[in-house]
Amino acid sequence: MLGFLQRIGRALMLPIAVLPAAALLLRLGQPDLLDIPFVAAAGNAIFANLAILFAIGVAIGLSKDGNGAAGLAGAVGYFVLTQGTQAVNEDINMAILGGILSGIVGGLMYNRFSETELPDWLGFFSGKRFVPIVTAALMVVLAGVFGFVWPPIQDGINSIGQWIIDAGALGVGVFGFLNRLLIPVGLHHVLNSLVWFVFGEYNGATGDLNRFFAGDPSAGIFMAGFFPIMMFGLPGACLAMIAAAKRVNRKAVTGMLIGIAFTSFLTGITEPVEFAFMFLSPLLYLVHALLTASSMMVAYALDIHHGFGFSAGAIDFFLNLGLSQRPWLLFAVGIVYGATYFVVFYFLIKFFDLKTPGREDDDMVGEATVANYDETAMSYIEALGGKDNIETLDNCITRLRLKVADISHVDEDRLKKIGARGVIKLSDRELQVVVGTNVEFIANKMKKYL
């Protein structure tokens, strides 16, 4: 189940990847910026059709080879599901959840039936052409079922979402805490999809992120508190790790840590920083999750509303100022959290003698990361037990996601010496290797060799 949820979490990243482009177009076209209506309309078109984009993107993300036929099956399934359920009960609105469900079914049907051979007289419909057909047939059945069982489910989801929204500081704090706590197993995307795209409604837009860009003045409470953490807090943690590094290693680790700190500040991509200490000390990571929760609660208490199309970095902060409420308070909050992270992390690293970058024992100092992607890819393959040990390989924003024949053949020390920030074993065959923001280039080279 964990492995399956991991796959869904990874698949969700494909449609979510279009949001920065949508947010950019929507904001640039507004009267307070470039005032170009057709540009704003182009961005709004993406937000207005998020459900179908999720159906297509999730189906492709779940398919075994990323084939477009899976995306077509997801789209067909979505149309059948939504129109079928509304024919039973016109009040049903499955919204983005309907898109996600259709994408899951489309992807699974592709994996199961994409190589099906039919009799000669039906040969035209064999293989990939059969996938949208069998998906439509299954979704007809599901539409009939959901037409009757979905209304109470819909009411339950709306009640949960409204409770979280109405819970105020407690609701945003719990979300912030769980958001960070689920990162090690990659399930934060599933939680985020519910909070950012499902809970709450404003003029047809659902979810905190979607409602924020639709102009809902009450939206942005589940995003604002991340800005102080990603722009100031985690860079402060990086400075603490630099200050705590052994003098002989400080110069070597400064370049790396400053680089990932700037990435966090500018773009809001935090995993490279978090994986630098996540496995070294669960206590340190728990403190990070608690500080994130507190930042969410502080932002709520100060009535700050802000949001992002990608993540809580400086780019989204300045781009979406026109939609925000009291955004500049986030800088004051951020400075406080930057100082807090520095002091707390430095003290804990020193007190518990944690082996953060630059504090490793001499025999633990890794080899230099290979700059050439071809050589790096081959090094990763060898450290993972060779070509025969790798059964499936994919990647998300910062991680390699793999299924191996024998996990005992995976050399974790070797992976870390190559440059991996961490290794997560999900089961006796599935694992993730945290590489960094250049993971896609390395993964593509690895697939080439495999």
Question: What does this protein look like?
Answer:
- Keywords: Cell membrane, Kinase, Membrane, Phosphotransferase system, Sugar transport, Transferase, Transmembrane, Transmembrane helix, Transport.
- The chain crosses the membrane at residues 12-30, 36-62, 69-86, 92-110, 130-150, 156-174, 181-199, 219-245, 252-269, 328-349.
- One of its GO terms (cellular component) is plasma membrane.
- This protein is mainly alpha-helical and 450 residues long.
- It has three domains: 49-166; 167-365, no CATH class; 367-449, Gyrase A, domain 2 (2-Layer Sandwich), CATH 3.30.1360.60.
- The chain is 62% helix and 6% strand.
- It is built from 19 helices and six strands.
- The strands form two sheets. A four-stranded antiparallel beta sheet has the order 3-4-6-5, covered by helices on one side. A two-stranded antiparallel ribbon has the order 1-2.
- Strand 3 and strand 4 form a beta hairpin.
- The longest helix has 37 residues, at 130-166.
- It is globular and about 75 Å long.
- It starts with a helix and ends with a helix.
